[in-house]
Amino acid sequence: MRRVLIAVAALALPISLAGAPAVASATDSAKPAQVVEKSNRPAALVAQGPDDICDFTINRPNLRLGSSGAVVQQAQCYLNQAIDAGLDVDGDFGRQTQSATRAFQQCAGIVVDGRIGAQTWSFLSFWANAPDAPFC
Predict the structure, then answer these.
(1) Neighbours of 131 (CB within 10 A)
(2) Which of 33, 52, 77, 129 is 20 to 30 A from 107 via CA?
(3) DSSP 8-state class, residue 105
């Protein structure tokens, strides 16, 4: 009973998501609350995925010297787009890809280790798909 009262009280309070208010009424419990989200970002920065500039794979594993395959091609494509690295998109994470990764990490102000992990993937995909790329 206590959980129900807390849930009803929470539904009666205005909720703010992404700057747009959404209000649910406890008296209208038959209908689910509708949440309207607005974004002040340009549409080009909101939607990423199907319109991704590079489309070798959607996987984002950790990459390092010696890695290979479609995920390396994805990273190389992103590096070319983000910083105009001039890499051959051959799927081989060699010395040139490692050097380009370090240059990108330095430019982005993130940890410089020459490896592509979660943080580097996040920055790479965002920068490569940004309308003003290449940056550095």
Answers:
(1) 7
(2) 52
(3) H
Using CA atoms of 111, 116, 91, 68 in order, give the dihedral in degrees to the nearest 10: 130
DSSP class of residue 63 equals B
| H/E stretch holding 85 | none
Predicted confidence (pLDDT) per residue in 73-121, tens digit:
999 999 999 999 999 999 999 999 999 999 999 999 999 999 999 999 9
By C-alpha distance, which of 19, 50, 49, 47 is closest to 35? 19
Question: Taking the domains of the chain in order of start, what are their residue ranges?
Answer: 2-40, 45-129
H helix or E strand, kind and range, residue 82 = helix 70-83
Residues across the chain: 136
Reported pTM: 0.63
Radius of gyration for the alpha carbons in the chain, expressed in angstroms and rounded:
21
CA distance linking residue 18 with residue 57, whole number of Å: 30
User: Thinking of the domain 45-129, which architecture would CATH place it in?
Assistant: Orthogonal Bundle (1.10)
**Helix, strand, or coil (residue 49):** coil
Q: For residue 97, how many C-alpha atoms fall within 13 Å in the half-sphere facing its CB?
A: 23
